[in-house]
Amino acid sequence: MAAATSNRFIVRAEIRCGDETLISYGFDLTERSIFIVTEWNAPIGTPLSVRLSFPRILDPIDVPARIGDIRVSGEPGEQGGIRLDFERSAGDVGARLLALFDPGDGPLDSVAEARPYRVLLVDDSWLIRDMFAYGTAQYFERPASLAVDHAEDAAAAWGKLTKSTYDLVIIDYFLPIEDGASLIARLRNDPRLATTPIVAISVGGRDAREATISAGADVFVDKPLVFRDLFNTLRVLAERRARARPVLDRKAILVFDDSPFALALTRAALESAGFVVAIAADLSSFERQRVAFDPDLILVDVQMPEAFGDDVASTLRGWHGVQVPILLVSSIEQGELASRAQRARASGYICKGAGMSELVRRCRELLEAAP
């Protein structure tokens, strides 16, 4: 039976405290905190910033936080590290991040139609390979949604990489002859493979982490692996792939907001829902994108330094004759937001506190109603 949905998926985490920057990984994300695996610690209550990311799901996003707890490593699978509590100034960032890793509730494509999420595991350990076979059956409702190829060394891996396309490559640092860091560097230097997401794994601790991250790995995970966390991450990736529609059928959405934080979250949420997304942070960029991108729907933040979003919507309707749906987004009081949307002849509005799931629902609703 497949495992239940869990928040124990893996993300890259870059801790910044003073002049120090440490790269590790996090899991156990909640609406208010995340656990970071690291040997580094500081007193409870220490303020810091953590940059969270994962390739093709979450663009790098900086979150203010404080150390809420320190845990010493114990039994296998109980990594040591720190729990970071998000600051109030981060708003509902935890809930919004959780929504990004929710593969959604749309219908899964049939096994015959959906291309499986393809993973190349580069590891010379038969035990790790056997555990992957077990995990595929244990954690996936549809084992066919994940396809795992194996390579025992860098040479075998390179042969597979040059002949097949993979959605993710998992590379052990301690490989025979050529180590994992060298293989990762080769991938990053090859134009065909440079953007392939890479997860590095090893028992080598800090030295292996620094070597593989420096070579270009997106995430480093310590051995012994907590397969629950790794397979929950793979499950999210595979289910998102299965629910994604063909590119030619996807609607295009242009998002105009002066906040990089809001742009990153909104873009990730909409892309994960199957939309093609362009973003703009200022008026000149917005106008260029509007003409070149030809969106099916436009999202506009109301409160921006260059112009109010309702004025932008009004200009689009009156001066440019734009007919596509326009959705105003803001944290202002709902009654005022509704009045502004009506005056600007926007198609609707949504409060920022409504969450990403509601935003995706409203976008779908407007697009389905559009002529």
Notable traits:
26% strand; six-stranded antiparallel beta barrel; Rossmann fold; 371 residues; 34% helix; globular
Describe this structure in words.
The protein has 371 residues and is α/β, with parallel strands linked by helices. It folds into 3 domains: 11-100, predicted glycosyltransferase like domains (Thrombin, subunit H); 117-243, Rossmann fold, CATH 3.40.50.2300; 247-369, Response regulator (Rossmann fold), CATH 3.40.50. It has 11 helices and 16 strands. It has helices at 93-100, 126-139, 154-161, 180-189, 205-215, 227-243, 260-272, 283-293, 309-318, 334-343, 356-369; strands at 11-17, 20-27, 33-37, 47-54, 58-71, 81-86, 117-122, 146-151, 168-172, 198-202, 219-222, 252-256, 276-280, 297-301, 326-330, 348-351. The strands form 3 sheets. It has a 6-stranded antiparallel β-barrel. α7 (260-272) links the parallel β12 and β13 (276-280). The protein is globular and about 65 Å long. Mean pLDDT is 83; it is low at 1-5 and 105-113.
Figure out the total of helices. 11
Could you name the ranges where pLDDT drops below 50 across 5 or more consecutive residues?
1-5, 105-113
**N-C termini distance:** 44 Å
Order of helices and strands: EEEEEEHEHEHEHEHEHEHEHEHEHEH
Overall shape: it is globular
What proportion of the residues is helical, as a percent range? 25-40%
Question: What does this entry show, briefly?
Answer:
The chain is α/β, with parallel strands linked by helices and 371 residues long. The chain folds into three domains: 11-100, predicted glycosyltransferase like domains (Thrombin, subunit H); 117-243, Rossmann fold (3-Layer(aba) Sandwich), CATH 3.40.50; 247-369, 3-Layer(aba) Sandwich (Rossmann fold), CATH 3.40.50.2300.
